[in-house]
Structures are given as structure tokens and as C-alpha cells.
Amino acid sequence: MTTAKDIMSTGARWIPAHETLDRAAQMMRDHKVGALPVSANGEQDRMVGIVTDRDIVIKCVAAGHDPSKVTAGDLCDGTPRWIDATAEVEAVLDEMQSHRIRRLPVVEDKKLIGMISEADLARHLSDEQVAGWAERVYSYT
């Protein structure tokens, strides 16, 4: 049985909701990631969302806002999604497909321990599993 913990990338980093998007972009660059879970101010065990590099470009820069003034929390909307480290791969795929998300934080004992991205799926799953996932996540129906 392959679990979320088996396929995740380790070293996921939080960004506090009060941090600005220019700081988020710097963290993404420094850690070579495209997304950061956003924590409630001062509470790294409570996720309020995820900010992605695409969010920064589309929702901030392209909208004419200053990334040194907009916070990570400003971009968070909806219910944050995550998966338990012991969840089987099928549950990971179901969660990502049903919510059409490309990155999924992995939690163990209420602590962030990693992130699952498209690259992780491609490295660890069969071609059929990846193709099925991509079809559901990227389809526009």
C-alpha cells in the first residue's frame, strides 16, 4: 500500500497570512517550490489556504496590485484542502481530482510534513494513474 507520505516531497514551508506576496515569492524562489501553505497568523498548525506562484502573478501583479502590500492571507479563499500522511494514493488522487487542485499539503499528527505536486505524481505513479488524474484535473467540463 502506497501512502501520501511515500510520494510527497519533504521540506514544505509555511508562510504566515500577514506576510506579503513579495516575501512569498522570495520564499518560493529560495526553496524552489511553486506553492506555500498559508498559516493563521502565529499558528503554524492551522492552515487558512495555499498561495501559488500563479496566484501572485494573476491575482496580484496582473491585477495591478503591489506585491509588497498584498498579503498571503489576502489571496486565500475557499476551504483549504490537505491529506493525512497515512492516506492511500487513491485517496490522494480522489482529493486532488474532486477539488481540481495540483498541489496537496500532507499532514501528520496535525503538522505539515510535506506537499504532493504534479511532479510527485509523475515520479511515483503509473502512466495510467497520472493520465487519469490529469484528465480529471485539467478538463473543463
UniProtKB/TrEMBL annotation:
CDD domains, A to Z: CBS_pair_HRP1_like
This protein's superkingdom? Answer: Bacteria
Query: Which InterPro entries does the record cross-reference, listed alphabetically?
Result: CBS_dom, CBS_dom_sf, Diverse_CBS-Domain
What sequence ranges are listed for the domain CBS? 8-68, 76-132
Q: Which Pfam families match?
A: CBS (PF00571)
Zinc-finger as a keyword of this entry, yes or no, is no
Alphabetized UniProt keyword annotations: CBS domain
Name of the protein this chain belongs to: CBS domain-containing protein
Organism whose genome encodes this protein: Streptomyces salyersiae
